[in-house]
Amino acid sequence: MKFKFTLLFCFLSFYSFSQKSLSGFVKLTQEQLKLTNVSFEKDADAVILDEEGYINITGKDYYIDVKRRVKILTEKGKQQANIEIDYFSDNNLQNISNIKGQTINEEHGQFVNYSIDDKEIFTIKTNQYYSVKRLTFPNVKVGSIIEYQYRMIGNHLYLIDAWDFQHELPTMKSFFKAEVTGYLDYTNLLVGKRMFEKYSKVSKNEWVLINIPSYKDIKYVNNIKDNSERIRLQLKGYYGNSGSVFGNDPEYKTTIQTWKDLKKEITTANNNFLNEGYVSKIAEQIPNGKSELETLKNVITYFNSNFKWNRFRAIFLRDTQKNVIDNKTGNLADLNKLFQTILKAKNIKSDLLLVSTRTNGKLITNFPYLNQFDAMVNLVKLKDNTTYLINAATISDDQFIYPSLNIFNDYAFNIDEKEDIFLDIKPTISLYESDITYKIQNNSISQNRKEMFNGYFYNEYLEDKNELINQYLTPPISRFYDDQNKMDLLFDKTDEKYKIMKIGKANLDKTESFIPIENPLKKYLTAYTFEEKDRKFPIEFNFPYYFTINVKVVIPEDYELVSPSNFTNTIKPNENLVYYQNSVYKNGTLNIIYQLLVNKSVFDAKDYNVLKSFFESTQKLTEDQFILKKK
What are the tens digits of pLDDT across the range 590-611? Predict the structure, then answer.
């Protein structure tokens, strides 16, 4: 469950001339009514004044009652006045009910309550599995307090994301209480520095935190919730009915207790959907290559041409393999198991790995919590000992060695090996090469840019793929260049890189005496900021990368070059962080080279100051400019 805010206005439907909170809310204090800023987050546009959650878990389902108050502090904060509550609506796994809300305003010295009309509560189905409740609050302005409450009912009892104490807004007080009235037994999984420090050594069924900053300052993490303050409830066991009628305690039964049990649970369930005979007929339609790798590529091409992911992540198959083949669609587990079965028919070995995606959050590896996994992918092992991590749901013909970044979240669990094996999976390094040439003549500057890149530098979601040329680098000589010639983005199968080229020209003002030449990585590098005092968790970047940029400037005779002093420099605190710049001026031509290597995507917390020093040093070097000065 999550909530987010956007601004919507509607006509007021009801008002009264007294400040009265919704039923069950604690009374608003004078401090809350007069609050104009947040002492521990001065730039906040809105603040959660207080929130309460209560969960009751029965033998068949659970419900969570939520009460929350938000105060609008700025004009921009009015964007926080529309609530969206997401929930898993497929098969009624979750449902939302008992929604109430109101806006409280002070007007002419009195408090006025504007209630949400039922007509302003919308249910929208976002996809096959999820829906959202939208609450439109009336008459919102700076100083408004919005209150809302609702009940979420769920019947997935194994692992419950019970309560978030930390949000996109700062929170002054957050309280949560849990009760189990059925025969189930739960373990409390505490997440976040403050929760762990306060409650890890005590057994509690209620928790409270105060003055919790927003999580906007949590940087360089794959999923903010991995380090934000929250609590999850994991089913540990249950009480059976074998107790004696004379008062003996009922027998306590555990759920999955070992990783072997977990593998058996998944494998047994998924085997019911297999149809190797039917799949073999499909595999026969796919040509064998001259090598295992070529056959693998043929399978990938066939798979991309014939199957479409239904956008649902899962570790359990939902349909038979015959139906998946006939309907040409399936969930993530359906497709990856089918991919493995086709490879098996081709005598290519592949193991299935369970992962928790970045969207889902980090794995807990010290106990086999089944519901923490949300995806299944293939680890293909060829006879020459090369391995490929492949997500059949989002596989790329051109770049199958670069699966979706979402699956890279530290560890993956192999369910096809006899031993309990966790693999530390990390994305392959992405390469970016750029050659930029400038010529100055006849009161104009011509620019010739050739870019080559692979891996995660390619943005599949960018509508105009030709704009990829501007995603990472800025022109060393900044001008508006009229495109005179260009080569649209293409994939070179020989080099296995994307290529794009642009040739443009810009007019040169006759009054210009100086033409600066800047570092094309300046904007990219200055985006890295490191301001934390005591980092306690790993630093996570999207992917490892290596830039190589060559800039060539042909300088006419009526200009002279002014070079920065001590330009040649190397910053290399270790093998994983390298920055290099150098220049050569010869025969009227300036050649500059820039190189930047970040060789891994995850760094230990102890490396925080090393990263801080590295990026701050490179940022300082990006201030170096060459100047073309007119004689």
Answer: 999 999 999 999 999 999 999 9
CB 543 within 8 A of CB 472: no
The distance in angstroms from the start CA to the end CA of the chain is 66
Specify the pLDDT at position 134: 93
Contact 170, 40 (CB under 8 A): yes
3-state secondary structure of 36: coil
Coil vs helix vs strand at 112: strand
R_g over Cα of the chain: 29
How is residue 320 written in tokens?
A: 């038979």
Residue 252 confidence (pLDDT) above 90? no
User: Helix axis angle, 276-284 relative to 332-345, nearest 10°?
Assistant: 70
Closest by Cα among 453, 446, 564 to 499: 453
- For residue 201, give both structure tokens: 């050594």
pLDDT tens digits, one per residue of 201-216: 888 899 999 999 998 8
Calpha distance 132→322 (Å, rounded): 33
Rounded Cα distance between 526 and 164, Å, is 32
Residue 187: phi and psi, rounded to 5, are -105, 140
Q: What is the pLDDT of residue 270?
A: 97
Residues 455/430, Cβ–Cβ less than 8 Å: yes
